Amino acid sequence: MDKTSEEASSKGKKRQRDQQPTDPQTNQLHHQILSLEDNLSFTDTLVALRMMRAQFPRIDKVSIQPFILRSQLYSSVKDRTQVDRELESLRREKVVRIFKLNTGQDDHAVMFFDDYLNQMENVVKRLEEKEGDLEVFKWFRTQVIDSKLEPSIEHQELYTLLSLGGMVKDGHISLLINAGLLILKSVVLWSFSVLASYTRQLIDPNMYWFAIPNIGSVLKGLSQGRKEVLSFLNRRRYKEMMLASMEKKRLRFSPLDMRFHLRDLIGSGHLKTVQTSTGLLVRVSKD
Amino acid sequence: MWKEIGDRERGILRPKSFTTRIKSNRIRTLQISNHKDIVSPHRASINSLQVDLTEGRYLLSGAADASAAVYDVQRATDYEGGGLIAKHKCLFVVDKQHEHGHKYAISSAIWYPVDTGLFITGSHDHHINVWDTNTTQVVMNFKMPGKVYRTAMSSLATSHMLIAAGTEDVQVRLCDIASGAFSHTLSGHRDGVMTVEWSTSSEWVLVTGGCDGAIRFWDIRRAGCFLVLDQSHSQLGRRPTIPEHSSTNKALTSKSLSSGQNLNAKLRAQQRKLANGNGTKQSPVGRMPAKGTLRQRLHPGMLSSLDRATAHYGAVTGLKATEDGMYLLSAGSDSRLRLWDVESGCNTLVNFETVRLQAGKPIQLATSQDSALVFVPCMTAVKAFDVWSGNTSQTFRGHYEYVNSCWFSSQEQELYTGGNDKQILVWSPSRLIADEVDEGPAQDRDNWSD
């Protein structure tokens, strides 16, 4: 009990910004914290995860369950090593699942286990209308997701785990890939070098990444939104702006709201916040 | 300070903790040196720096214009600014004009660990040269199949004199100075090898980091590597937790066991399954059947080459083992710095706040003497991180362009950094100018009357 109020006050800085959202959202957050409080223990990362999950923007075109980026966690909890370690223990306890995203460097999305299962259900329901052979999704859900907690899986292991459910054919694995649950791992070599001419890509036929289905448009919005926020600040004369006024801006290219992007960019180090006498200032970091 | 000296006199403070305290205080005040300057004769970016391990006196630098130079960092060649600034010019330089010199960039220059009579340079012209320091002549030359990225010699070795070379080629080659030939090659990496380091606890163990993102540990007396670091195997803390008797913790310990043991068992099991299911299974990608037969033909020691675990999501650009040999720091082109527990092979999940690290070129990391701080070249600055918590302790900004290498001299508590701006900068603990002036010839003002 004390811990929640303490964490709420330590995140007072963040709470100030959150005065803006509408009342139903804060009520929902309050309600959520009250109901989960009895069941699960609190770690700082978990509180941050739940807060951000509740603040996930509503996207009308795509129905997607809330996910949190790892960089957002880094911006809301002070000690990054603690975030990493707590995320790791949450992952091992099957509270959250971590996915590697393909938008740039080392991006990870954290999603609560139940949200992920709901997302899978929605996708499977939509596919049900088109085709019939859906036992593979059941096997995937019961055998693979429960036991394999890492973000990637080897072909052989996937095969053996699925066959615990029944006879697996190759068509089944392509069904999973088409549904967006698995992605072929492509080892990109030298992709981060300054000289783009040195990029080589190898498709590794044996490894798959787990993926969140139906997330493609949101990811595109994510990278475009990042570019938009950074270019907006870079165009200004002193490359900085008050946080309060930044939050009111609407983004043209991204369905995700400004707060989502700000947290992500501050956590990944592209932007830094400076405390001034009139409030927080957001500045592009030069390094 | 005086109280500490008094305590040391009385025996309240132990000698080792006294020296560590003074050294860490000095390290905390590191800044760009106002009394020491190294005059670099290089006309291109500096790729490698090393102070010799025997005396800690001579600094060897290798640059991209195929030149290597040696400086004496303890005695200056001349003084400027009224005796206040010590200029260290190079003692000699070997460059393209030298008859056996390198033709392309030197990527790595290291001293022979036993004494400063020899030094070894590896270059992008596919050659490794062994030079005699006193005569500045090449005494031995090894030709490699690709550009040499890193060379390393073990400072602990008493029974071998092998140079480990990481090149563009997927195999790591060991060159023997005693015989002048290659002793053997280590295969397992799937792309070029950017960094090689010998272990600081065993003279037989070599650690290599490749462009495929894998970090492999090799025992050179055996074939194949015995450990491949996997970033998804992690432990929460410096050492893995002591296992209790519960199912969840059993899963934890199985993850934190040396992956070599698990790996061999897993692969052998997979081998058996493949042998049974090869006929009926049709793979979606046509390479599987060939892979299956390939697996069955491999020597059991070479099974590790099939382990595709990666330590970084990009190339591994820098490796540094701590002095006690228990932990390994690795830097990758995914701009992450990771700390690994060597014994368990797990990622300790310490988060170092690096925003961007230089990709495409190997970088040289340095650790302070008790391995509490690690100095990492981050683009144009060098940052000192606390190894156990990942916090940035100091940032050294002074170079105009990207920094490639840094070396920490624990004797003097000085940091030498070299970068693309052709400069070698010295960072030393702050010293008051007044101290220097006192050492000058003192005028005897009392001697005005007889």
UniProtKB/TrEMBL annotation, chain A:
Indicate the family of this protein: Belongs to the STK19 family.
Q: Where is the composition biased (Polar residues)?
A: 19-29
Which spans of this chain does the record mark as coiled coil? none
Task: Please give the organism.
Answer: Lithocarpus litseifolius
**Which residues are listed as membrane-spanning?**
none
What name does this protein carry? Serine/threonine-protein kinase 19
Task: Tell me the superkingdom of the source.
Answer: Eukaryota
Q: Region Disordered: what ranges? A: 1-29
Q: Which PANTHER family match?
A: SERINE/THREONINE-PROTEIN KINASE 19 (PTHR15243), SERINE_THREONINE-PROTEIN KINASE 19 (PTHR15243:SF0)
Basic and acidic residues bias: start-end ranges = 1-10
Automatic annotation (TrEMBL), chain B:
**Xref: Pfam families:** WD40 (PF00400)
Q: Which GO terms describe its cellular component?
A: Cul4A-RING E3 ubiquitin ligase complex; nucleotide-excision repair complex
> Which parts of the sequence are annotated with region: Disordered?
237-258
* GO biological process entries: proteasome-mediated ubiquitin-dependent protein catabolic process; protein polyubiquitination; transcription-coupled nucleotide-excision repair
- Source organism, top-level taxon: Eukaryota
- Signal peptide residues are none
What InterPro entries does this protein's entry cite? Answer: Rad28/ERCC8/Ckn1/ATCSA-1, WD40/YVTN_repeat-like_dom_sf, WD40_PAC1, WD40_repeat_CS, WD40_repeat_dom_sf, WD40_rpt
What is the protein named? DNA excision repair protein ERCC-8
